[in-house]
Amino acid sequence: MATEGEPADLVKVLHLLVLSFSWGMQSWVSFIAGFALVRQVTRHTFGLVQSKLFPVYFYCLLGSNVVSLAVYAVYHPKVLLDWQEGVQMLLYFAALLTAGLNALWLGPAATVVMFQMREVEEEHGLGDQIGLGSQREAYAKLREQDPKYRAYKGTFGRYHGLSNLCNLIGFICTTANLIYTALNLSTI
């Protein structure tokens, strides 16, 4: 491992805690919380909760990725990197980039469109059902009959899909970095 000086124990602990925090938060938000919540509350309540939690989630990810990349970069100067460390640096940067895209663009844009869709749904008496799968026919009919809603739905789908893709890429990067860090621990 090429480094410019050995990091202090406190820096090592900080680095591992921040990386673990990111991974745990990504795991919880991506694979547990949303799936559990969507089955328990109305569609509009789900959207409202997500609109409040996701900015916090995205900015926490952004901040922790900044810290992880900064700590790694300080102790792994570019001129001393081997190929594995170069890949890890790239993964830290990719995680930072995807979190930034979600925090600054995709998340806010999807939320705006989600609230526009919500207004149209409320006008048609939709959104107070528990679970996203309820009243599929009514939502399909609304999509067919209302061009504004159809446009909102398409725009939301694009933003949401890109946001999910960024989130998945960030999760994969964080997972790979956590595994690499674990494999390079001298002891447990």
Explain this structure to me?
- With 188 residues, the chain is an all-alpha fold.
- The chain has helices spanning 9-38, 43-75, 83-123, 136-145, 147-183.
Low-pLDDT parts are: none
Number of E-type strands: 0
Strand/helix succession: HHHHH
Helical/strand content category: mainly alpha
**Strand coverage percent:** under 5%
Largest sheet: none
The outline comes out as elongated
Rg (C-alpha, Å): 20 Å
Terminal CA distance? 18 Å
Mean of the pLDDT scores? 92
Please tally the helical runs, counting DSSP H or I stretches of 4 or more residues. Answer: 5
The level of helicity is: over 70%
In short:
This protein is about 80% helix and about 0% strand. The protein contains five helices and no strands.
